[in-house]
Fold these 4 entries.
Entry 1:
Amino acid sequence: MFSNLAVFQTSSAMAAHAGERQSVIAQNIANADTPGYKARDIADFTRILRQSGEGMVATREGHIRGDTPDIRARESRDSEAPSDPNRNTVSLEIEMMKSVDVKRQHDRALAIYRSAMNVLRASVSRS
């Protein structure tokens, strides 16, 4: 009954997206000195959620379930970033800013989950 609540599915998907994006950022930082490496990123969670259908309604398998297998398919190369003389487009400052944004997204997902759990506990305890 409670396992299909959209708020838990959305917060789980948001946390999974943050983890995937952090992985891409870590790869960018690891390749900061690799000649010809192009910085990569994945779409924001809100953009992925909008593209996936009608808001928070599950329309297909894997949709808003936390198991977002196609997040990596949405990776894009940042072709407009300035490159170094070795044609590397990774900027450590930009990657650090992205990392802070990902931490905020993950913290937000946990806060949504905790808040929903508190509401659920309060409603069950009053029954």
Entry 2:
Amino acid sequence: MPRFVPIPTEIVRAYQADGVDSYGLLPERRVSEGGGNPCRHCLRMIPEGAAMLVLAHRPFASLQPYAETGPIFLCAAQCEAGGGAELPEILASSDYIVRGYGADERIVYGTGGVVETARIPARAAELLARADVEFVHVRSARNNCFQLRVERD
């Protein structure tokens, strides 16, 4: 069974403590309008009126051509890491891009596609059953924003 994995807590705590983002900038502090601000750590929607961070995040350990960097939201206050076997609350759209990556953190060609949200666990399991896929990303089908990582349980 695949496991949904948030951005690691130590990285999130650094951002929340005014650490710089992947572009060397301080995270922007905003107020959530509710509904459309998914926290990539607790994997819940940031409630309306709550403080949030907007920043550039690169969910890869190394710099290389496939290491995409993009905008994400995080709760400004410390939140508990989400994740596990169940579809997280932040996956509230009808579909997402699901794509496999190798141990070298590069896209495994032929693995990416737009998948209906309810099928994400099954598609992630299919990809993770392959020897050439080390992990999976779930990304916005509209904006390509990183949502979360999926790993073998």
Entry 3:
Amino acid sequence: MSLWTSLEPASVTVDPGSTTTVQLRVRNTGDIVDAYRFEPVGDLAPWTTVEPAVLRLYPGTTGTVELTFAPPRTADATVGAHPYAVRITPAEHAGAVVVPEGNVTVTPFTEMRAELVPSAVKGWFRGRPQLAVDNLGNTTVTASLSGNDNGDRLSYDIQPGNVQIEPGRAAFVKATLRPRQITWFGSKQEQPYALSVRRSGTEPVDVDGIFVQRSILPGWLAGTLGLVLALTIAFVTIWLTYSPQMQSVAREKPQESGAVVPDSPPPPKKTAPPAPDEEKTEEPPAEEDGGGSGESDGGGGGGEEEPAEQTAADAVNELAQSSEGRHICYRAYVEDAWQEPVCDGAEAGAAGQGTPIKSLNIAVTGTQGVTGTGAFVGEGWRKEIPWSNAEDGKDMFFGSTESADPALEGFTYKVFDGSVCSDAFVTEKDWMGEVCTDPGQFKYHGSPMELNLSLEAVRLTV
């Protein structure tokens, strides 16, 4: 062995998002000049840098290299102790590799973000927003949820009322807002409110939203009904005051003296009903033999059954069996029918044909699931269409296949591990260019909402 090493200190502590350093001292105990190459190994290697990467030492001399550890401020920086190592390879004695080891302790941190989807909801009797809570820290978060507004005009039903979120994951909470007073006439009213996410011992995180309460009847109808009622009362008053007194001048004609009153005609004689005919029992006609041994035209036997419809989940599971890694499969609902599913960047829909997509069916593998919702032309986010979630290998749907519902304008979604990319073909435009989500984050894909243009085709990759 021609090498002596020492880590100073061997164990250190570091906060995610900051750095710490360790001095590695190296002495050439051989009798020739040698160059030593340093390479971090182990789970902490992506966070570790060595400066300098190569050190040249004369016999009997000592040199120092600096190891810098910089764990990111994300959920990937798992809290706790992490062993690390540095591989030292001499240039002159390549087989005499030395691997000194140490320990880095990553401290815990908590970071949470909450978002209302959509931020503004409309309704006569209720509104149904959804709250997405992301745990961006490296420790499990437990929080309670509540709602509040100025004037206590709304009541809140939040399900679930408490959430526990693992590092790097998200929880989706459904809320129902109900106005305490119903607006019968007048214009719509905007009521600001806030949903609070509270962790023990910390200040709550408030997410602001707006509930737009619509009136049951339009404002002009109240004035019209009042005018009609006033005219009716005036008409009845005038009629009762000036109605003419109508008397009949008709009188019964007196009988002439000596006239003979004719007898009343005698009542008709009751005649006995005719005797019923004797009931005759007829034998029912014999059923004709329909040629049971023969075959009828268009008989119903022996037809082949239609093959079952293949969904995006069927396609992605078949692809996962033959190919490792992450995959995404999808199909489009166009012209009142589902297309066959395609995968990993292939085109779904009909670009440039003027046939909008009404619904999308998506399934993924290798991403720990997918979640999102669709946007509709002229209406934005629709509360009637719920937010969708699906695990790996399961079907998720955007939009609606109902004939009365509009076509898709776009969608917002994300995968829980990695990122997802899409390219959308928009009516009267062209392919809008590929857009990718940041890892674990939502992003909108499709037509700009102010254009009110529908989707005709998509290409998706993970």
Entry 4:
Amino acid sequence: MDLFIHQVIAGFATGGIYACMALAVVMIYQAIHHLNFAQGEMAMFSTYLGWQLLAWGAPYWAVFPLVMAISFAGGLAIERIVVRPIENAPVLSHVVIFIALFAIFNSAAGFIWGFTIKPVPSPFGEGALYPGAPIGKHQAGMLVVTMIVLSLLWAFFRFTRVGLSMRAASVNPESARLVGVRVSLMNGLGWGMASAIGALAGLLIAPVVFLEPNMMLSILLYGFAGAVLGGLSSPLGAVLGGFIVGIVENLAGTYIPVIGGELKLSIALFLIVAVLLVKPAGLLGRRTVQRV
């Protein structure tokens, strides 16, 4: 029973990172109705920026907001410079652009910082939270920071005028324009916030998986799984899906000997396929009905 509780708590902590990535995926999907395959590489590049600032002697808790601010500006710039000109282009054009962004960020990180694995210190300390605790200090810190950020985002989208405008622009852009919402600006803000959330996920997970140009590939896949499970039309569903994926992944890796630690990534793929077959809209997603 102790092992089960330990794995659930650890999965919940890791699921917070997946929830952040899933939320970033959904925010961009709601803005442009396409999946951003470069989301993980953008987060990875932001993590390298954070590592470089730490190497130069900057304090971690000053690096954290600074990197998120830089990532926000970078995401907004990508939306304005790269995505906006092709907003009416065919789907394949968007796919090619996102694959190109994936390759650019991955190669640029390797070119600037090299492809060797770099350890990243944890700001929360090492070891167990307390003697005999089922969760480590870094896992507890990840969970607390993630829950604070997700709570702030919920309040932002629920109670602020800009947040409500972003929700309106994603649900019904035509009606939003009629009431004076600048949909293009809201889409840009969505890209910026998604990039900042991705940077948050990268900075928190880097001490666990170590820093290298491909570090976010599996994290993005888990984020995709969480987004599909919760529903690509529901930010709340994406967060819920991310936590579920984290818990299921940990329990499956522990109690199913065939999976172990090597095949845990297959859990994400299985969840994506299963949800698309059984409930394509996801747990909290909206079904789209079109009149033909």
